[in-house]
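Continuing the batch. This is chain 6 of the set; chains 1 through 5 are on the previous pages. Same settings as before, nothing changed between runs. Recording input and output for traceability.
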Amino acid sequence: MKNLIIVCILFIVHSTLKAQVKEVCSINCKQFYELSQKAENVLIVDIRESKYYKKGHLNKAVYGGKKEILKPILDKTPKDTPIFIYCEVGKRSKQAGEWILKQGYQTVYQLSGGVKNWDTKTYPFIKE
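Output for chain 6:
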């Protein structure tokens, strides 16, 4: 009986801790566009190097390719704001998303496969 109680307590603790672990949600191009462009009060961040951002970026995206640039942007952003991030192929945005979650933000979406998977024929891509 004592072992059963211990197992139940461990299960409850494990379940509670697992529920608190947040992950970057990787979504496809269509989902990224629909969620980020149709909702209000979202933050869209381009994590690529600035030279790529200047060549073109997603609609409403701000440049945040370095922590010292991204941190002040996040400091002005409420913690419950959905944050959408992307890079060239998905690796940098995944890492940045994990860092953003550690800063206390609740919801981070990553463009799966990065901007290389962005369908420019269907969805807007701003060229400067």
